[in-house]
Each structure stands twice: as C-alpha cells, then as structure tokens.
Write a structure and sequence with these properties.
This protein has 3 helices and 5 strands. By secondary structure, the chain is an alpha+beta fold. The chain has one domain. The chain has a 5-stranded mixed beta sheet with strand order 1-2-3-4-5. Helix 1 crosses helix 2 and helix 1 packs across helix 3.
C-alpha cells in the first residue's frame, strides 16, 4: 500500500522540500539554463542569468521565482491540473489522498508544462514589443516573474530605455 499523505500539510511540506531542486531539473530538461540563485527569502529567489534560445534568438533575463505563491497555486487546484497537453494523468481528487511520489509527480508536471510554454510566450511578447515600438533587439530588456501556474502566460516586465 503506498504511503499516503497523513494530513494536508504533508503535501505542502513535500512541495517546499523538492521545489528548488525540481525547478532546476525541469529547466534543464527543457534546455534552459537557470543559473545561480540569489535568495530574497527562503521562498522567493532571483535567477539573474536565466537563459535560453528560442527561434534563433538568445535570451538572458532575470527570473524571479516565488515558491510560496506557486505552492499555494498548486494546492488551490486539483492535483495534476497543470501539465502540458498530451500527458495522461490519473491522480486522486484531493491533495491529502496523494502519496509522496504522486505529490512529486504533480509538481514535475506543473513545472514541465510551464517550461514547455515559457520560451514561446517570452519570444512572442518580445517580438510583439519590438514590432509595436519599433525597437531593435539591443534596446529591449525583459524580466520574468514566475508566481502562478494558473495564468496562461508568465508575468513579463519590460524595460525599454536605451542601454548606455
């Protein structure tokens, strides 16, 4: 019989325990380089050198990850709710009914789904911003806040003043 979560807090504790290492692993699995973290707090980290290639463009930008907000978002939704299309998942309906392995699988699928789409969303947003403002590639700086899974797009912040 699989080890079941004895209380709702066990899901949170397990997500908090594995989140940092699984964020890095999920990023690497999708060919992102997350870089070194600067910790604002135990649950809010800055990755200043987050980088990837999309559509022959190299992106390097700061990524702020709010672990606490992401865990709250996961737990506020049904287990297995966030994953990229095509994955066939079967989880109990309540977090307290999941084993540790199932909790880990829910987190992995959510992170994989986010990294699956993030390059596309960022690339599209940058291209649109360039088109809309007539900017050249060196004039556009961007940052990304990763705080929820339930939003269809990452929270992107642009700074478009000319570089010195």
């Amino acid at each position: 019989m699989p080890e079941q979560a004895e209380q709702p807090n066990q899901a949170r504790e397990e997500l908090e325990r594995i989140f940092p290492q699984w964020l890095v692993s999920a990023a690497e699995n999708r060919d992102f380089s997350i870089g070194q973290a600067m910790k604002f707090s135990p649950k809010r980290w800055l990755f200043p050198d987050f980088s990837f290639t999309y559509d022959d463009q190299d992106f390097v930008m700061p990524l702020i990850v709010d672990f606490d907000s992401l865990i709250n978002d996961l737990l506020a939704n049904r287990p297995g709710a966030f994953h990229y299309p095509g994955a066939t998942l079967s989880f109990p309906n309540e977090w307290e009914d999941l084993s540790r392995k199932q909790i880990q699988d829910c987190l992995w699928n959510a992170l994989e789904g986010w990294f699956y789409y993030v390059a596309y969303y960022i690339g599209w947003a940058v291209d649109w911003r360039k088109y809309e403002r007539g900017q050249v590639p060196g004039d556009l700086r961007i940052g990304c806040l990763f705080e929820v899974f339930s939003s269809s797009r990452p929270n992107l912040q642009f700074l478009s003043e000319p570089l010195p």
